[in-house]
Amino acid sequence: MAVEKPLPQGAPDVPVKVGEPPTDLVVEDLVVGTGTAAETTSTVTVDYIGVACSSGVVFDDSYSGGQTATFPLAQVIAGWQTGLMGMKVGGTRLLGIPPGLAYGSEGAGPDIGPNETLWFVVEMKDVKAA
Question: Which domain holds residue 48?
Fold first, then answer.
């Protein structure tokens, strides 16, 4: 499924993989960072865009509001916890997150249905130790 356009201003394209949704976590560095690496206990600051695999709809992003998101890595969905480990400041990473590592059979909100696979592009802006 192609990503629905237009994307929010400043957001990168989300290179959704064509074909069946992944059953395992997809972690692909689009740009390798050179700064501090994220660890399990880190608090990270990121720009991101998320797309529902089945519809190509952008369901969430930090670009529309013009503000990065900051959170402890331990407090986000499992796909982000695992997928952002070791990512360095300055890097950009593609994550393909199967439902079991996202919102499972319950979904989340109107744009993330039950058993939805999610695609994200995440730009690591800062990493702070706990």
Answer: 26-128
d(CA 40, CA 42): 6
CATH number for 80: 3.10.50.40
| Among 102, 93, 85, CA closest to 44 | 85
User: Which tokens sit at 49?
Assistant: 């865009």
**pLDDT tens, residue by residue, 12-50:** 888 887 778 999 999 999 999 999 999 999 999 999 999
CB 55 within 8 A of CB 116: no
Straight-line distance from the first to the last Cα atom of the chain, in angstroms, rounded to the nearest whole number: 38
